[in-house]
Design goal:
It is built from five helices and no strands. It is mostly helical and 111 residues long.
Length: 111
């Protein structure tokens, strides 16, 4: 049981998939946000990523160590991809917030 607390395999794989999606949807050269349609598409992508993070957190219930590993993996993945520091910091904070809120939520009681 204690070793499960330090398990990072699933969290690392998930963080890598989030970084890969960001790289694909929001290239370092800048996303095209010149039209309303492109902005809506970008918002849908972000909503999908936030939903994935929430679903993962509810299903896996990551502990404090795993959440820290998730944030670190996101942060370094984006830094290594060449994203600007303010973007990296903001995205990491937002993703960690979604992870923390979703993992802290109690499952709803069913009647």
């Amino acid at each position: 049981m204690l070793l499960d607390w330090f398990s990072r395999k699933h969290i690392d794989e998930f963080a890598d998939s989030i970084v890969a999606e960001l790289l694909q949807r929001f290239p370092q050269s800048g996303a095209d946000l010149s039209s309303e349609k492109s902005v809506e598409k970008a918002m849908k992508t972000l909503d999908r990523i936030f939903s994935r993070i929430s679903a993962f957190a509810v299903e896996r219930r990551p502990n404090l160590y795993q959440k820290a590993c998730f944030g670190n993996r996101i942060k370094w993945g984006l830094k290594e991809a060449g994203y600007p520091a303010p973007f990296v910091e903001l995205v990491t904070q937002k993703f960690l917030a979604y992870m923390a809120i979703a993992s802290a939520a109690r499952p709803s009681a069913r009647s």
